[in-house]
Design the sequence.
């Protein structure tokens, strides 16, 4: 391995290049080039072969990027462009040497970009920043574990600590982590779900009794209709495009509902097919609904009303009466509620025409097997929970639940975020789980609910949480209201990060800070009992093993399972019946306990070694059984609300570029949206640019309009004329997170509302940047 610093290209607003708007196709040969060329350049041919070609294979490792499921019959190249980028980023042989910490103070690291921090290389040994000092210093593993344990033991209450988890953590590490935390005495287990799909869990739990997808992998290709809402598969989970292509080839239809046109929802050029290389590829969306931000709930209610009206015109021929009678409740209340739905209010909320809504309703009515799939474009709305309940309503009306080719499909954005929750990473696990955990390990777990991500920041700010630990992730970078989040983290006494590479959370610390370096999923994990594997759960409840394929970049690294085991021994010790030493030596011992505690995971060690692992039971999918209080799926009544914006403002959504995964920035280009060498841009409809008295290419300050007396502003962002929905705008996160108020959260789930931020664009005093594109060309994109 090498500690040679890589070349890091940083840009300012004068370097930014704006192309001719969104591309109309995704993947193809460019996708191959943008994945393989950087991999070979940064890792070399041999390391690239050992990593990229092992990704998502049955004897390989699970992609550390998204949670898209794997097919039964896997191709040689079972990866996408962004998966290859994730592996290249993690498996780089470049490491951070000891001299780095002497050369770079924490204060200096705070001035660096996420991109620069991530490009410095892999972390290889624990480092400690003592209170009152501005540099990290290498320490031994025993010393690092002692510092953590001593601080936790010295707190007045276990509830003064919070333990965050990233979605990349394995099932084994996650299970031990929650065991350690509950053995210590708190349920303060915020995780990345609190910021993304918490709304899905709440809505689905209350309506069908389970917060997970009710579809299998094969259902996507066999659906008659797939409605894709609030997501961008071409960037965020590109392998989904292959199944959407299969759906089209089997005669299915696809409808995209999104405020922005996305290349992957328009046309897909599959690089593993001839027509994807030399032909046009496959047209994906048969219909694209250019919806106004926050209008999804109104659209769904309008479709459900059209379904009910069709039944009224032709009784007994439209609704699935047998399914509804046997398995559902609340139909009469829903009928009464939607009978008064105001069509004008629907049109105002959605920005759509009646004909467009009628067309989608017609497609739904003729389809016998329908999947509705969504992501954070839905969950991060103020009415995200209610909107997902409306998705469930629409599916239930025609029995699109528990049959092949149909169901509800939230798409998880991180590789094992769903598995972590299954393993107990939640601040309010059900009492049945707590009972089983206590029985298995001989202790009484804490019963009071812990804090979620937003509550963690609030308690930090108020002095109620003094210790913060993150098992992976970039909590400071990912969290809403950047200034408030950073101030709260800076007020803690000790912050601890378990990480593979640097990010913003290592530069914004408590008075005292530790970085504990860990192995990546790509690396071979050998413990005292021999080579180990871990397990993960994908977005359709499939649990499978993951084996590393390359040597670790340093022999000083510990696996996440080993780190948690050592900390558990030091902190909890024999207060519970846990063999911490044994857990580190042999992960089978961890899985034996999972078998006894986690429902659906019985005989875990045997089943995980079966070909392809195993599928967790799912009542709504498998048997049309619903673990709700009444044993029936619930059709719900939800009052329609849509986002109101004052005159002169826009509704802003935050989003990823194509060159990033979550807060990890791989580069400064977003080729599907025509952006190169920069990220400080705001996408605005050309008609809105004119109406607001701005100009394409102008530099603006983006000011949040949330009325709580706090100034939230980001400066010198380039206006890019773009076919967003009227009245809407978009900017990249984490840069735009500063505009998302911490206490502006989704009703019920407490998820920050990153998809409906009211902002005002004000010309920046400095207008030295030049636009490479005229306003007229931007307007032409809409024709």
Sequence:
């Amino acid at each position: 391995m090498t500690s040679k610093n890589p070349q890091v290209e940083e840009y300012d607003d004068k370097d930014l290049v704006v192309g001719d708007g969104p591309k109309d196709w995704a993947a193809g040969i460019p996708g191959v080039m943008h994945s393989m060329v950087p991999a070979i350049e940064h890792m070399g041919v041999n390391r690239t072969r050992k990593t990229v070609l092992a990704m998502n294979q049955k004897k390989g490792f699970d992609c550390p990027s998204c949670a898209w499921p794997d097919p039964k019959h896997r191709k040689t190249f079972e990866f996408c462009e962004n998966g290859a980028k994730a592996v290249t980023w993690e498996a780089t042989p470049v490491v951070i040497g000891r001299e780095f910490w002497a050369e770079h103070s924490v204060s200096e690291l705070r001035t660096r970009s996420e991109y620069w921090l991530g490009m410095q290389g892999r972390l290889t040994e624990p480092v400690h920043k003592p209170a009152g000092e501005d540099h990290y210093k290498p320490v031994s593993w025993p010393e690092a574990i002692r510092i953590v344990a001593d601080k936790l033991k010295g707190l007045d209450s276990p509830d003064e600590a919070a333990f965050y988890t990233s979605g990349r953590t394995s099932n084994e590490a996650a299970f031990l982590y929650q065991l350690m935390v509950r053995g210590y005495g708190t349920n303060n287990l915020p995780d990345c779900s609190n910021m993304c799909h918490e709304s899905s869990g709440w809505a689905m739990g209350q309506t069908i009794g389970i917060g997970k997808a009710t579809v299998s992998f094969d259902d996507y290709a066999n659906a008659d209709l797939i409605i894709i809402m609030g997501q961008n598969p071409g960037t965020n989970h590109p392998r989904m495009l292959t199944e959407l292509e299969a759906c089209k080839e089997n005669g299915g239809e696809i409808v995209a509902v999104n405020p922005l046109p996305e290349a992957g929802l328009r046309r897909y050029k599959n690089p593993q097919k001839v027509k994807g290389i030399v032909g046009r590829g496959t047209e994906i969306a048969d219909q694209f609904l250019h919806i106004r931000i926050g209008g999804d709930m109104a659209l769904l209610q309008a479709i459900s009303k059209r379904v009910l009206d069709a039944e009224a015109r032709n009784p007994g021929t439209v609704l699935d009466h047998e399914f509804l009678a046997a398995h559902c409740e609340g139909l009469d209340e829903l009928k009464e509620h939607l009978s008064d739905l105001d069509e004008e209010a629907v049109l105002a909320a959605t920005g759509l025409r009646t004909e467009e809504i009628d067309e989608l309703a017609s497609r739904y009515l003729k389809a016998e097997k329908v999947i509705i799939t969504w992501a954070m474009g839905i969950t991060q709305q103020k009415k995200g929970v209610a909107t997902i309940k409306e998705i469930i309503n629409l599916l239930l009306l025609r029995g699109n639940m528990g049959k092949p080719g149909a169901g509800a499909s939230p798409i998880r954005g991180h590789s094992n975020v769903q598995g972590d929750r299954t393993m107990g990473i939640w601040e309010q696990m059900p009492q049945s789980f707590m009972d089983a955990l206590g029985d298995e390990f001989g202790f009484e777990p804490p019963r009071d609910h812990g804090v979620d991500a937003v509550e963690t920041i609030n308690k930090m700010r108020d002095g109620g949480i003094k210790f913060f630990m993150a098992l992976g992730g970039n909590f400071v970078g990912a969290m809403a209201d950047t200034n408030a989040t950073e101030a709260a983290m800076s007020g803690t006494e000790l912050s601890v990060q378990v990480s593979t590479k640097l990010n913003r959370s290592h530069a914004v610390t408590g008075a005292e800070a530790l970085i504990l370096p860990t192995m990546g999923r790509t690396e071979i994990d050998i413990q005292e009992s021999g080579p180990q594997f871990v397990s993960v759960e994908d977005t359709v409840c499939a649990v499978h093993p993951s084996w590393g394929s390359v040597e670790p970049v340093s022999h000083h690294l510990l696996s996440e399972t080993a780190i948690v085991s050592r900390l558990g021994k030091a902190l909890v010790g024999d207060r519970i019946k846990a063999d911490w030493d044994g857990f580190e030596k042999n992960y089978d011992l961890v899985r034996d306990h999972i078998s006894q505690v986690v429902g659906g995971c019985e005989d875990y060690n045997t089943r995980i070694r079966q070909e392809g692992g195993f599928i967790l039971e799912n009542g709504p999918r498998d048997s049309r059984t619903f673990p709700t209080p009444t044993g029936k799926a619930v059709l719900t009544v939800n009052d329609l609300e849509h986002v109101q914006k004052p005159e002169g403002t826009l509704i802003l959504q935050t989003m990823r570029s194509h060159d990033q995964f979550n807060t990890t920035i791989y580069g400064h280009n977003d080729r599907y949206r025509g952006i190169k060498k920069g990220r400080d841009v705001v996408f605005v409809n050309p008609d809105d640019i004119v109406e607001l008295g701005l100009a394409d290419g102008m530099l603006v300050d983006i000011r949040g309009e949330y009325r709580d007396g706090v100034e939230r502003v980001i400066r010198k962002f380039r206006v890019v004329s773009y076919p967003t929905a009227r009245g809407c705008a978009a900017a990249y996160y984490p840069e735009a997170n500063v505009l998302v108020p911490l206490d502006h959260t989704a009703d019920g789930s407490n998820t920050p509302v990153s998809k409906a931020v009211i902002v005002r664009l004000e010309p920046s005093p400095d207008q030295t940047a030049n636009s490479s594109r005229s306003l007229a060309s931007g307007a032409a994109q809409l024709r």
